[in-house]
Design a protein that fits this description.
Chain lengths: ~280, ~270
Amino acid sequence: MIFFQRLFTAIQRQVAIVLAIATYENNRKSTASSIGAWETIVGPLQLILFFIGMRVGFSLLRGSNRFAAGGTSDMYFNVVMFISTGFIMVFLFRIVALKALSGLKLRAPLYYPRIKPLDILMALAVNDFRAIATISLGIMGLVWLFTWSFQLDSPGLAFVVYMLTILMAMGFGICVTFLSNLNKWIVRVIKRLIARVLIFTSGIFFATFELPEYARPFVTWNPVLHSVELFRYSINNQYPIPDISFNYLVCCSMLLIGFSLILYRTNELQLLEANDD
Amino acid sequence: MVGGLGPSTSGVVVSATASARPVLTFRNFSLRCDKSDPRISFKVPWNWEIPHGKKIAIITNSSFLRYQLIAGIAGLVPPVSGDLIAGGVVGWPVGGSGGLDSKLRISHSINFLKIVYGDCLERSCVSLDEFWALLLDQSIHPNLTIKELSKDQKEFFYLALSVLFSFDCYLFPQSKFLMSKAARQLRKLLLKQVEGKTIIATSSNGRFRSDFCSEGLVLNPYGGILYSGGLSESIEWAKSNLKLSDDLEKEDEQLQMGLDLQNASDDLSSEVM
């Protein structure tokens, strides 16, 4: 009983520490730039708006319905909803992964013996997840307001997929943090590679059912595509998701988070020593 | 003064508060001893423990070993081998400026540490009101950022932070500001705060040693224990057997704790695609 009480207190304290570091980072940003802590939201938002603008522009040039997603996916979503659901899930993953590849940028709190590198990685991820959640709720709210058609067929599935993507992003982020010790040019190449592969294979611009059957295996290996498509499916259950599997997403998330925690446990000291300068 | 232990290969490091256990236990513990060669470490790894309430002044003529000892116990540098098991809360180096970003406001910094070391604040004999009154006396207002403080204000602020929390083990790498006139009030509070607590000090300031420490531990540059006993006997022993430099404190200032723990700017926007 005492063991569980101690365990619960320790977990409670650790959660408080992670949230304190997340606030530390926001406070640091709030005095550093003119837009302050909003920077975390403004960065991804401007990129989402840019791609939505591009997609709407192309639709207009083609002369099709300006609210349509283009292709056959317009039967299920309007363009803003389609692109933003893709971006929200992909950004959830890529921000954490790319940030982690640069190593621990927030190192000063490690000065306090109670703070460990994992706390910092989790705190930075918490800030990103909060920002992306704010953006997604904002965009969905606006779309529902303008089209006056509220649709969220499976809220439970949406929540679970969101949480699994967070776990997967955390796991991938912790794994790639150890790569930050490599030569900076190699890290830069890996970073660009991950960014491009994620953008073009995660289903931001296309739906899996639009692809011919023989082309699907080239993208369905990517678990982020599964989270994007399942998230869209949770909003509209009519949306077809061939070759998309919830089990695959669960397996990838659990394997990544499990492997990353083992990797972290055995190599924690490397993160204390690593300095990308 | 120190209890011997058998060698162990245990990799488990426990951190909890329990006064029955020694505050620090070294198991096969070894640190770097040479700044230029990372392969040179303790000739005989440490296997001993420090009970609660001991106030030990470390006396050695190697400034790098003094730095490594404090940084190693604080967890800022990893040991070359072995483990350090903490049986209580080990504080950050007293007066250390490493953990807070200069862009943080004073109120942000205190709120952050209040959460991280909340349990140490609960049992502290210095109240937050007392702490804020001390800061306001020095014109350190809650809405100022750390970078806006003058050098003296910064030193006062960082020392005040160390005084505010009650740790089981205090680490003193330097004591120049602590023993200055400007820090008289803080010194009084700190003396009250460290009553019954463990102190590990590498500061060579004589007045500091006599005020804060009661025992001495003389080490050779490779971590070997040459002498341990009462403070005055240890100092005498070191004076007659070690070649001590005249300005040890100045040497220590060149080795600043946690210098590699600087926050870098986050430049993700340039890596968009």
